[in-house]
Amino acid sequence: MTIQTMTMPLLAQGAPDDLESMFELVVAGGPMMVPIALCSVVAVAYSVERWLRFRPGLLGSRRFGRDVVAAVREGGVEGGLTLARSKQSPLARILALALERADEPFLDREKMVGDFASNEIRRLGNNLRPLLLVWLIAPLLGLLGTVWGMIEAFGEIAGSAGIGRPELLASGIYQALTTTAAGLAVSIPAVVCYHHLRGRLDAFGRRVEDHARDLDAALRERRAELAPAPVVERSKAPSANGSAHEAQTAQTPPVPASVPIGTEA
């Protein structure tokens, strides 16, 4: 029996002729295609949302960080703080906090700014978790659909209704392979988008560290410029006659008291 002979009854039962349609793929894959399709919608939605959110103009561009550092060098803390507060990006909030704590000790300011920057980056990365979940769940759903289809196929073959009807086995295998392919088709783009967006977020973290280091250097330079010049004391010139050295006089040791000599009785 040829493959065409085996698949003709399947086509007669309403199996899709053309697999180019997404709806036909969902119908052919069985009920497990519904959660896989939902995973694809979630992956697309969060990928687009995070891609738009991670644009340099919204996170804080490298040029903006350089402008804040230049404003500190020219106008001091107030100049840099005014520019940093004019934006609402995460980078602007981090630099504004560093300038607000400019008078505090370096270690305290560094710890406070570091904690605040970590919270900002963690908050930005929260919406990447759905992509990670889709990456992990979609292949498992495809595998579940595969097992489900194989169970149904062999169940039909094992029953009396499946005797002499190998097309039922082909139908089950077809459904199983469809769900597996769909799960992988959703999972692979999801993991690619996740790592791409994660790389953007890591690059933003490195950019924050660079600007914070440049800002500390600018603050030190500004303080050095505003610090008063040290007063240099002039050494006194020696007098014309010169200073007379006092001669050390030898002290005469005290004369010991005479001890009376007793006479013999």
UniProtKB/TrEMBL annotation:
GO terms for cellular component: plasma membrane. It is found in: Cell membrane; Membrane. The chain crosses the membrane at residues 25-48, 131-151, 171-197. Residues 88-207 form the MotA/TolQ/ExbB proton channel domain. It holds the Pfam family MotA_ExbB. Residues 228-265 are annotated as: Disordered. It is a multi-pass membrane protein. Keywords: Cell membrane, Membrane, Protein transport, Transmembrane, Transmembrane helix, Transport. InterPro entries: ExbB/TolQ_transport, MotA_ExbB_proton_chnl. One of its GO terms (biological process) is protein import. It comes from the Bacteria. Residues 238-252 have a biased composition (Polar residues). Signal peptide: none annotated. Belongs to the exbB/tolQ family. This is Biopolymer transport protein ExbB.
